[in-house]
Amino acid sequence: MKLSTLCAAAGISFDGPDANVTGFAIDHRKVAPGTVFGAFRGARFNGEDFIAAAIEAGAVAVVAVPEATVNGALHFADAEPRRLFAQLAAPFFTPVPETLVAVTGTNGKTSTVELTRQLWRMAGHRAASIGTLGITTSDESVSTGLTTPDIATFLANLTGLAREGVTHVAYEASSHGLSQYRIEGPRVAAGAFTNLSRDHLDYHATMEDYFAAKMRLFDEVVSDGGAAVIWADDTWSGKAIAHARSRGLKLFTVGEKGEGIKLLGRTPGGLGQKLEIEHAGKTRTIDLPLIGAYQAANALVAAGLLLATGGDADATFDAMKRLVTVRGRLERAAISSVGAPIYVDYAHTPDALEAAIAALRPHVAGRLIVVFGAGGDRDRGKRPEMGRMASEGADIAIITDDNPRGEDPAAIRTMVLDGMTAMAAEGWAREVGDRREAIGAAIAEAGEGDIVLIAGKGHEQGQIIGSGDNVRVLPFDDVTVAREMAGTLGGK
Ligand SMILES: CC(=O)N[C@H]1[C@@H](OP(=O)(O)OP(=O)(O)OC[C@H]2O[C@@H](n3ccc(=O)[nH]c3=O)[C@H](O)[C@@H]2O)O[C@H](CO)[C@@H](O)[C@@H]1O[C@H](C)C(=O)N[C@@H](C)C(=O)N[C@H](CCC(=O)O)C(=O)O
Ligand SMILES: Nc1ncnc2c1ncn2[C@@H]1O[C@H](COP(=O)(O)OP(=O)(O)OP(=O)(O)O)[C@@H](O)[C@H]1O
Ligand SMILES: N[C@H](CCC[C@H](N)C(=O)O)C(=O)O
Ligand SMILES: [Mg+2]
């Protein structure tokens, strides 16, 4: 495709010379003749240092800040080069699925995009979800490493899906993805906001900055005339609604305070829950086969996304009773030899841990035993807060390693324990660094009527130890380990 054609499609002024574009890359090692190279200042590297090498490898144009030095290729200059790069790349990647929706929030993005995909599928659409679990269609799931890898991969994936006949895609818009312009370009029919709570304050300076990064979804990413589906019961919901309103998006609120879907009541049952809701003046009862208030919230936001993009209400609400568990989200991994259920959940923020514990609490006759830790090279301030949530909500806590990455795992455990000193002093919280041993200890501890919650790693298939050149990923799957331990260890 010609550079001039791309510029015209993206509304970018172009004063030649023209060139044939063969692809887009933000890593100079992926540049081939005809590539447009995005040279960005990052956390670890300055992409501008690789401009010469990219041109040497055949880059025909470079998107970078105006001050960057570009010799031997066209320089597309902008103070926000990542945004310009996304605008230029979008028209290159065609076709794209006709209905795209994006979900942001601290917790619940993966769950919501996956539940949206399931609902679309039950409505007869060829649908996919993109996010932490990778790219999921009804046929397969392919891991991508990051929730939202990079803009060129994102757009290429959309085109690949469209070529396979996928018409509906729900994708996760992480705050990193939004602030780095990794997930935009094509028309986005609707955006959803689930909630906001503490996470990633290593990357964003304040909660306000973190929220502002997420609000780019409504301010800029959702297309003109698109819809905003907002969980209405969060402390940040009012502000999210204000962003959607000032952008002129079609507002669809969900929750107890919701007007699009109003949650009137929720009754936990054995393996699911009954929801009473009101939509368009009609009250309905939904038997949702997922437990926990948080899963009800995500499933209702998913339903909201269908309705806000033209889905049929009767069919959508009826399909909710056939939703299946999202991998690693309150997934029942095993039942111990004494009959204690063992759940795996991806709670890795204080709010998520509180939500996962609250989800299980109505099902606990005896004690709730939680095994968790916190990831290294991530927001440190959330660690004692996670400890506090566990000490307030669980009866027994075993603090173990998550993904230590480049940090000392014992120091991370200490920071978690800092938030639970009283519980530790009473002997109800203890440290078992090795995650397999910790899971074994929790299962051995569990008696009849108890429930074990293994939190933090959900679907993850490895434990990340070390960083940089010394990084190792040891195969590790909480569900598999739970099953092994449940089979080999008896309870007291
Ligand atoms: C903090 C963060 O988001 N970092 C991501 C970001 O890095 P960066 O822009 O800071 O890039 P950098 O590594 O400093 O390099 C700068 C530029 O030079 C380029 N480069 C670099 C080296 C080289 O030899 N040649 C070259 O061209 C790079 O491609 C990049 O464009 O862009 C890189 C390329 O896409 C990502 O690999 C990297 O993800 C790192 C590995 C990461 O851990 N990210 C996590 C925190 C993340 O993004 N997570 C969110 C989910 C969070 C959540 O919702 O909870 C996600 O969306 O996955
Ligand atoms: N609506 C919600 N409210 C509170 N907690 C939630 C909600 N949805 C999910 N959680 C908690 O967050 C965990 C992660 O959920 P999920 O993977 O859907 O979120 P995410 O936003 O995609 O996370 P990530 O930022 O890691 O991509 C769940 O396992 C659960 O503990
Ligand atoms: N998307 C999140 C995932 C965290 C998962 C947890 N297991 C950890 O390693 O901290 C992040 O990159 O911060
Ligand atoms: Mg996710």
Distance between the termini: 68 Å
Widest sheet, order of strands: 8-7-6-9-5-10-11-12-13-14-15
SS-derived structural category = alpha/beta
Shape verdict: globular
CATH class annotation of the largest domain: Alpha Beta
Strand content: 15-25%
Major β-sheet profile: 11 strands, mixed
Number of E strands: 23
Question: What would you give as the CATH superfamily of the largest domain?
Answer: Mur-like, catalytic domain
3D structure, described in words:
Belongs to the MurCDEF family. MurE subfamily. It is found in: Cytoplasm. Residues 103-305 form the Mur ligase central domain. The protein has 3 domains: 3-78, Udp-n-acetylmuramoylalanyl-d-glutamate--2,6- Diaminopimelate Ligase, Chain: A, domain 1, CATH 3.40.1390; 99-322, Mur-like, catalytic domain (UDP-N-acetylmuramoyl-L-alanine:D-glutamate ligase); 331-488, Alpha-Beta Complex (Protein-Tyrosine Phosphatase, Chain A), CATH 3.90.190.20. Helix content is 33%, strand content 22%. The protein has 16 helices and 23 strands. The strands form 4 sheets. An 11-stranded mixed β-sheet has the order 8-7-6-9-5-10-11-12-13-14-15, sandwiched between helices. It has a 6-stranded mixed β-sheet with strand order 16-17-21-18-19-20, sandwiched between helices. Strand 10, helix 7 and strand 11 form a beta-alpha-beta unit. The longest helix has 16 residues, at 293-308. It binds ligand UAG, adenosine-5'-triphosphate, 2,6-diaminopimelic acid and magnesium ion. Residues 147, 348, 375, 378, 402-403, 456-457, 460 line the site of 2,6-diaminopimelic acid. Adenosine-5'-triphosphate (ATP) binds next to helix 4, helix 9 and helix 11.
